[in-house]
Write a structure and sequence with these properties.
The protein is of the alpha+beta class. The protein has 2 domains: about 40 residues; about 180 residues, Exo-inulinase, domain 1 (Jelly Rolls, Sandwich), CATH 2.60.120.560. Helices cover about 15% and strands about 30% of the residues. The protein has 1 helix and 14 strands. Strands 1, 3, 4, 6, 10, 11, 12 and 14 form an 8-stranded antiparallel sheet that branches. A hairpin with a 2-residue loop joins strand 10 and strand 11. It is globular and about 40 Å long. It starts with 6 loop residues before the first helix and ends with a strand.
């Protein structure tokens, strides 16, 4: 006759098995998360934009790592290029994540592959930042959030309303540009197949536009992909 384990022993063994399974799963997830975080560099730390950024605009960085742009009295337009928030170093292939918040009718942009900071419109590429919440039936243009300027509208409107935080995840790998806004891919572009983009620089500075309108940024981090 086969011996049977007492009920208490069976329950204890079952609890141990469940706990062991959970521990293994947690360890696997942690390892995956750790690997995913490898190589990222935070670009907003401390109480100064140094050593990652330079600007003559009215940008402020608080102790919580939130960068805010408040236009000075009389500042208008978007062609005051030295007022943009510019990276100190140039980038080749990379991926960047950041959160942004605009006011009502807000307008800005993330620039990359900028060869000349004094002429980013012609010597760089822009991913649009705009107060453009989703509207049913609205025709999207390159000036909606997630659009690529010049000429490529986003495939969907996923921006949140003014006053709310949005997250971009942008990847530049060779000729391939991928733009994710709030977790959804809204642009996937081969830059060399676009007539208005194919002759743009293949590497350069990154920056955020000063459009003479309030803007907030946080959690900016970048990862170099050129050696991967």
């Amino acid at each position: 006759m086969t011996d049977r384990l007492p009920l208490r022993a069976m329950l204890s063994f079952s609890s141990f098995a469940v706990a062991a399974t959970m521990l293994c799963t947690t360890a696997t997830l942690s390892a995956g998360e750790k690997d995913d975080n490898k190589g990222w560099v935070k670009l907003l730390q401390g109480d100064s934009f140094e050593p990652h950024w330079t600007t003559k605009g009215n940008w402020k960085l608080d102790e919580e790592g939130v960068a805010t742009l408040t236009p000075r009295p009389g500042e208008k337009g978007w062609d005051r290029f030295d007022a943009y928030l510019w990276s100190e170093k140039q980038n080749d292939d990379f991926e960047i994540q950041f959160e942004y918040k605009v006011a009502e009718r807000g307008n800005s942009g993330f620039y990359f592959n900028v060869a000349d900071k004094a002429n980013p419109v012609q010597k760089g590429i822009e991913v649009q930042i705009f107060d453009a919440p989703a509207e049913e039936g609205k025709k999207l243009t390159d000036h909606d959030s997630g659009g690529v300027i010049p000429g490529i509208p986003p495939t969907a409107s996923t921006a949140k309303p003014a006053g709310e935080w949005n997250q971009f995840h942008i990847t530049v790998a060779g000729d391939k540009l991928t733009v994710r806004l709030n977790g959804e891919t809204v642009n996937k572009v081969n830059l060399k197949e676009q007539p208005r983009l194919k002759d743009r620089p293949e590497k350069g500075y990154i920056g955020f536009q000063d459009h003479s309108l309030p803007l907030a940024l946080r959690n900016i981090r970048i990862r170099d992909l050129s050696s991967r």
